[in-house]
């Protein structure tokens, strides 16, 4: 046992696992560290560094108030590795004079990641938490267990989603994609010249994405544009913050209701999470829907997963200590729900974000893939990061103000700098992973296996597809025209597939 009056310099220069600590070196720590001075110095430096870092992590602190003559004592923590046959004394506290208290450890100590430190007499090499205080009140963290744990968490944090982005393109057994950008561009140009080819023999169902319940103008311009062309178009009233499987059931019911009422097949276009929800509905309930659905278009959908969702919710990161997951839970389940006083009870489900992580998407797609006979178009873009984009304001809602003169409420546009937010996220993903994205979804994760892929060169962020911008370039196609072009391409893909199936049957 070290004496409380030893100086700090002596304490720091002492070998990492000195004999005067009563700890043998034939356990988990090799004798190499004490026999080679260079390695021992490096190990001592690592121990000193981790001792300072541990002060930031309250989860590993052991609160035990000891007072002597009115002097307060600061407590740090120390992981000590015991070898076989070691003494079972585990928790030691010392004050600035000479008193000490030691007790045998009789039960497991909880730690992160579900690991429990047991009684050393029961588990050789177990990690035991103890407190040592020198004259300056700061102990040296001498265990290598925490160092390894810290390094692993740092590695996971730095690595992030680098190994997951684009995993669908590397997965075996997935059907290849086909290029459809050129044909899409031709259709879009024709629409700009007034040539519209969408048939009125179908019903068009638009499925909004995450947080759409709080954006009353989500897809509204597209629906109005379709209605002016005499087309039947609906926006699915799903709970945007609900889980993928819950929304899949609601979309199934929507499709069946539309088909029974109109006797027309349904063409689906889902944006962002709405595309994932729609794809899940067709994967899970295809036997019930195959005669009612004509095709599916996914616009900027994280079909393979989202690095934003994964990086926020991934466990085992350094970010666990600022409770990122808890913050997102409060944001989704409390704050955002509170912004909508008419929200139903199941709005604000943390599952909605979890379902977009790579882990959940891999798990789901291993069990449920889209049927091969279903016509599918996937569309993804890259967000611009120019200064002009940073000044872009998106029109997300209307605010009604009472009018004194006319008696009719005046409507004022509610705008948000979504373009700037998307540009910042896109820059982050580009710098960290070297991946192009629309700000939330990387281009590679938005490509659905077996689909016709549209990869426009025009810079468009994730919010552009559903919210109009106050400074849109009128010479360029708008979001409604892009949606029309995607669905027109989907109709052509469906006709081609039906022809190929007919030829195969013959």
TrEMBL record:
Ranges annotated as biased composition (Polar residues): 1-10, 114-128
Domain of life: Eukaryota
Spans annotated as Disordered: 1-21, 91-128
Ranges annotated as biased composition (Low complexity): 91-111
SUPFAM superfamilies xrefs: alpha/beta-Hydrolases
InterPro entries: AB_hydrolase_fold
PANTHER family cross-referenced by the UniProt entry: ALPHA/BETA-HYDROLASES SUPERFAMILY PROTEIN, ALPHA_BETA-HYDROLASES SUPERFAMILY PROTEIN
Name by which UniProt lists this protein: Alpha/beta-Hydrolases superfamily protein
Native organism: Xanthoceras sorbifolium
């Amino acid at each position: 046992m070290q004496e409380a009056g030893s100086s700090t310099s002596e304490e720091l220069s002492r070998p990492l696992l000195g004999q005067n600590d009563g700890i043998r070196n034939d356990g988990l720590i090799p004798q190499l560290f004490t026999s080679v001075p260079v390695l021992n110095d490096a190990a001592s430096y690592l121990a000193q560094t981790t001792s300072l870092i541990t002060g930031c992590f309250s989860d590993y602190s052991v609160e035990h108030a000891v007072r002597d003559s009115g002097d307060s004592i600061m407590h740090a923590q120390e992981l000590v590795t015991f070898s076989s046959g070691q003494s079972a004394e585990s928790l030691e506290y010392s004050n600035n004079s000479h008193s000490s208290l030691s007790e045998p450890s009789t039960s497991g100590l909880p730690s992160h990641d579900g690991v429990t430190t047991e009684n050393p007499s029961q588990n050789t090499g177990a990690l035991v938490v103890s407190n040592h205080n020198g004259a300056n009140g700061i102990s040296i963290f001498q265990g290598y267990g925490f160092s390894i744990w810290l390094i692993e968490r740092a590695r996971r944090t730095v690595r992030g989603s680098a190994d997951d982005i684009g995993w669908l393109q590397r997965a075996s057994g997935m059907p290849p994609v086909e290029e459809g950008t050129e044909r899409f561009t031709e259709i879009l140009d024709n629409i700009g010249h007034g040539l519209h080819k969408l048939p009125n023999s179908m019903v068009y169902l638009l499925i909004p994405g995450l947080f759409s319940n709080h954006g009353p103008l989500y897809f509204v311009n597209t629906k109005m544009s379709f209605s002016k062309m005499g087309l039947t178009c609906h926006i699915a009233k799903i709970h945007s913050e609900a889980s993928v499987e819950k929304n899949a059931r609601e979309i199934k019911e929507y499709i069946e209701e539309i088909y029974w009422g109109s006797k027309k097949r349904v063409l689906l276009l889902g944006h962002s999470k709405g595309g994932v929800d729609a794809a899940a509905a067709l994967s899970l309930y295809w036997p019930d829907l195959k005669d009612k659905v004509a095709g599916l278009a996914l616009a900027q959908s994280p079909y393979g997963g989202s690095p934003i969702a994964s990086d926020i919710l991934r466990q085992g990161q350094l970010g666990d200590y600022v409770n990122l997951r808890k913050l997102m839970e409060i944001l989704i389940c409390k704050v955002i729900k509170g912004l909508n006083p008419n929200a139903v009870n199941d709005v604000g489900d943390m599952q909605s974000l979890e379902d977009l992580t790579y882990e959940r998407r891999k798990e789901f797609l291993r069990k449920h893939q889209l049927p091969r006979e279903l016509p599918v178009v996937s569309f993804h873009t890259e967000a611009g990061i120019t200064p002009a984009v940073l000044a872009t304001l998106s029109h997300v809602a209307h605010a009604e103000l009472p009018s004194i003169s006319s008696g009719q409420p005046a409507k004022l546009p509610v705008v948000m700098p979504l373009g700037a937010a998307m540009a910042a996220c896109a820059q982050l993903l580009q710098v960290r992973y070297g991946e192009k994205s629309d700000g939330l979804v990387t281009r590679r994760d938005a490509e659905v296996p077996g689909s016709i892929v549209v990869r426009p060169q025009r810079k468009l962020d994730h919010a552009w597809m559903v919210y109009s911008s106050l400074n849109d370039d009128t010479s360029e196609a708008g979001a409604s025209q892009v949606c029309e072009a995607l669905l027109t391409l989907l109709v052509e893909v469906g006709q081609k597939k039906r022809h190929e199936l007919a030829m195969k049957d013959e």
